[in-house]
Specification:
Helix content: 25-40%
CATH superfamily of the largest domain: P-loop containing nucleotide triphosphate hydrolases
CATH class of the largest domain: Alpha Beta
Shape: elongated
Strand content: 15-25%
Largest sheet: 6 strands, mixed
Distance between the termini: 37 Å
Oligomer: single chain
CATH topology of the largest domain: Rossmann fold
Length: 342
């Protein structure tokens, strides 16, 4: 079976509310694809439709060349984590994964393997009700990996993880992509996506805004600036303004010049006899590029516990224990107790 997630003209309506509005994009293997958008943009709804948990109003999602419901061994084909807390609190981590393994014809030995992989082997027999949010996330990831699938869909996988856990999941996702797997991950943590994702799909109000590499997304939706540190900021400002360069003074006293290059700033300083301690070019962060594109005050935190090639840009306006892989996990210092996300 192919590893491409193919989404074509996907739509979802709830009464008069349009949650997803004609989305079309593909998720390719061999890279981490970040799925970004403000709260309510339609990310979770899109993932649920990909997994057959919600029925589209229009369009389709194919994994390889099949709908999810047509897969003979879904857990061996697609691993997912949409809501890690959706697991019986009275079950142990081992018991939960063993139940999933048996219902999907996966060898019991694989349960111990994934528990060790996510760092839960020491609490494998502990009941899930005592797990922190970070531990629960680890169990959800273990469930997603249980069938050793070539395709992974992960919704907010770093939620609740401590800095060590964030680095671990980052390296895990990049390692899985390097093996040729398809890794599709949503997150509100822009700084983490900048470190993890090779490619980005950005949506807002259910519509596609961008489908491009992370580097190209930042370049296309931001302005670079030249930062200048000088003991003569007023003279430097006047010299730049006289040359038609827009300049502003930052809070730390440095100057930021726009629409020019560092070499030109250096030449202007030299010609004016100005002392310069530092000149450097800075590019915008993923957060800045995202805000510039979406143009709204969406909830997209810029930092979490830790601190590719593209197809080009496009701009346009209970229990889920169903064998797709959504569950709970073991201890980690600094990982907070489970609680509902806002």
């Amino acid at each position: 079976m192919g590893r491409v997630i193919d989404i074509q003209n996907l739509s979802k309506r709830y009464g008069d509310t349009v949650a997803v509005d004609g989305l079309s994009f593909t998720v390719q293997p061999g890279r981490v694809t970040g799925f970004l958008g403000p709260n309510g943009a339609g990310k979770s709804t899109t993932m649920r439709m990909a997994l057959g948990l919600d029925h589209p109003t229009g369009g389709r999602v194919l994994i390889g060349d099949r709908h999810y419901r047509e897969l003979a061994d879904p857990l061996r084909r697609v691993g997912s984590m949409l809501e890690a807390r959706d697991v019986h609190p009275g079950r142990s981590a081992y018991g939960h994964l063993l139940w999933m393994a048996r219902s999907n014809r996966i060898p019991a030995a694989r349960v111990r393997e994934v528990l060790e992989l996510v760092g839960l082997e020491k609490v494998a027999r502990h009941r899930v009700r005592g797990f922190s949010l970070g531990m629960t996330q680890r169990l959800g990831i273990a469930a997603a990996l249980l069938g050793d699938p070539p395709v992974l869909l992960l919704d907010e996988p770093v939620n609740g993880l401590d800095p060590e856990g964030v680095r671990w999941i980052r390296n895990l996702m990049r390692g899985l992509a390097a093996e040729g797997r398809t890794v599709f991950v949503s997150s509100h943590l822009m700084s983490e996506m900048a470190l993890t994702a090779d490619h980005l799909v950005v949506i807002s109000r259910g519509r596609l805004l961008a489908d491009t590499s992370t580097r190209e997304f930042i370049e296309a939706n931001s302005r670079s600036r030249v930062r200048i540190r000088t003991p003569e900021p007023e003279r430097m400002r006047r010299a730049l303004a006289a040359a038609g360069v827009r300049v502003r003074q930052a809070a730390d006293g440095t100057l930021e010049a726009y629409g020019t290059e560092a070499a030109r700033v250096g030449d202007l300083a030299s010609a004016s006899g100005l002392t310069v301690h530092e000149i450097g070019t800075e590019t915008a962060s993923l957060e800045e590029a995202f805000m510039r594109l979406t143009g709204d005050g969406a909830d997209h935190r810029t930092s979490g516990p830790d601190t590719g090639d593209g197809t080009g840009h496009r701009t346009t306006a209970s229990d889920t224990g169903d064998g797709t892989g959504h569950p709970a996990a073991g201890p980690r210092s600094g990982e907070r107790r489970a609680g509902r996300r806002g």
